Amino acid sequence: MKRFDTDLPNDQLKEKIIDAADKRFKLVGFKKTAMKEIAEDLGMSTANLYRYFPSKVDIAEAFAIRCFNEKEDRLKKVIADKRFSSVERLKSFALALLHFNYKQLQECPAINDIIVALCVEKPSLVDRKKAGELELLIMILEAGQKDDGWVFDDIIQSGRAILTSWIMFTTPTFMRLQTLEELEELLDSVINITVNGVQPRV
Question: For 166, which DSSP code?
Fold first, then answer.
């Protein structure tokens, strides 16, 4: 059996553990993955694995945070593109969010098991996900307010409402019921309704 290189810095060790768990989650699903199997894949003892992560849910949490960071980095690039108008930026942001989540679903069909487990065991992680997306969306809405006169009674509450209207484009349970093309078409309609709702009132 291969041996795990425990001489690596802790952050690199944890990344390798997350990588191994990721492969297991995609292969057999979160529920059927055992800590012992992750340890065996890495060539380390189960006891040693518990030194870095107290439970499988803790590994899933670290995996989720890594996904959040990757997603937010991509979304930041969309926001930073100065070629886009406010409407184009909002649409590109929403599409990037859909495509990221759809890709995750295709690569890990059992991802809903991870989401359900984290919602129960790590509810603060749900707040972390929402806060990251909301912060970036607010930047788009503020730019639309400044450049195009978009109107909001409460911009933060409006941002939350917009993200809520996108739930079917970001939740695996709903996303798997339609093709990507169908989801893109529906999302475009939702964005158009949103944009009409924030136009200056006369």
Answer: T
User: By the 8 A CB rule, do 117 and 30 touch?
Assistant: yes
* Nearest partner of 24 among 6, 42, 37, judged by Cα: 37
Report how far apart the first and last C-alpha atoms of the chain are (Å, whole number): 72
Token output for 109:
């069909």
Burial state string for 161-174 with b = 16 or more CB within 10 A and e = fewer than 16: ebbeebebbbebee
Q: Would you say 95 and 187 are in contact if contact means Cβ atoms under 8 Å apart?
A: yes
Q: Is the pTM of this model over 0.90?
A: no
What is the structure's pLDDT at 114? Answer: 86
Reading the block at residue 195, the tokens are: 């944009």
Distance CA 162, CA 124 (A): 21
> Tell me: the pLDDT tens digits for 45-68?
999 999 999 999 999 999 889 989
Question: Which residues are within 8 A (CB) of 125 and not within 5 positions of it... i.e. 6 or more apart?
Answer: 61, 64, 65, 118
